[in-house]
Design a protein that fits this description.
With 300 residues, this protein is mostly helical. The protein is built from 14 helices and no strands. Helix 4 packs antiparallel against helix 5.
Length: 300
């Protein structure tokens, strides 16, 4: 039968939680029985008995499959963009499988299975990197931006350069000159959402240097964005960040009003209050990839 790791993980997890009850039930299978019934029950008892080593193996499998289960839950969430999570989640799984492989190196069969999983994951990760969209999606997620790809232990040296070049090409293609660049110091800071107790992406972001340069020395919106201006700490809050983030609210108005001058908030009813502050700004420089986030954040 096909292996469904989520179902298998839940079954094993429940069995471990009920370990005392399971052991007790198996132990009393042939109790107070005689004859053929006792023989049949004893046969089942020998078959279903789980010793300490069996339980240790189940705990290891539960821990390994737990990573797959969390990734499935992450990609199954509604109301959040997921293309921007593809590469970080692949890297999470790669790290998870490699750590599990190192931890259970003495179990030959388990070690071989983990290596097979890593080999298969590498194939799919390389396929994902062929397309520009997962790369652009990740860069446009305010939790990751360009800094995420600068982890040398996770990504090849050419990946951050490629990501930056892809975004620059789109930026230059769809750039329209603005009369003056707004001063970042004139905006309110983005109200950061408190991070959740458990984050599946925390391991892939650990060790990434934080940059929060919101000075007026940034020469372009791209530089301001790369400097981690107005940081986002909620990995599920990309749409909300693009909805209320400050300098990039000008992007919202430029996109929603199709690049025309917008003098009233009527172009997008229910838009964030920060957007309404920029009713006098002309057509803005904008990033094509942000359309996905902005269109969803400001439905017409």
């Amino acid at each position: 039968m096909p292996i469904r790791w989520n179902t298998t993980h839940v079954e094993i997890d429940r069995g471990i939680r009920l370990r005392p009850a399971v052991n007790q039930w198996v132990e009393q299978l042939d109790k107070n029985l005689t004859g053929k019934k006792k023989t049949a029950a004893s046969k089942k008892k020998r078959k279903w008995y789980l010793g300490p080593l069996d339980w240790e193996l189940l705990e290891a499998l539960c821990e390994i499959l737990g990573g797959f289960h969390q990734v499935t839950l992450k990609l199954s969430k509604g109301g959040i963009p997921t293309i921007c999570l593809v590469l970080p989640l692949y890297k999470y799984m790669e790290t998870h499988l490699q750590n599990s492989k190192d931890r259970y190196h003495s179990a030959a069969n388990l070690h071989a299975a983990l290596q097979a999983g890593l080999d298969k994951l590498t194939i799919h990760l390389n396929k994902a990197l062929v397309s520009q969209y997962p790369l652009l999606g990740t860069v446009l997620h305010p939790c990751f931006r360009l800094k995420y790809f600068k982890r040398a232990d996770l990504w090849a040296k050419d990946i951050p350069t490629r990501a930056k070049n892809l975004l620059k090409v789109l930026y230059d293609e769809y750039m329209v000159p603005s009369a003056t660049a707004p001063s970042s110091s004139s905006h309110h800071a983005f109200s950061a959402v408190k991070p959740k107790a458990f984050s599946i992406l925390a391991s892939t972001m650990s060790g990434v240097p934080e940059h929060n340069n919101t000075s007026n020395t940034a020469n372009s919106e791209l530089e301001l964005y790369y400097s981690n201006a107005y940081p986002c700490v909620d990995e599920d809050g990309a749409l909300e960040w693009w909805k209320v983030s400050l300098d990039f609210c000008r992007l919202c108005r430029a996109v929603i009003s199709n690049g025309e001058f917008a003098d009233t908030p009527k172009y997008f009813p229910g838009a964030c209050t920060d957007c309404a502050r920029y009713t006098r700004y002309p057509r803005s420089q904008h990033i094509r990839g942000a359309l996905v986030f902005i269109k969803q954040a400001h439905p017409l």
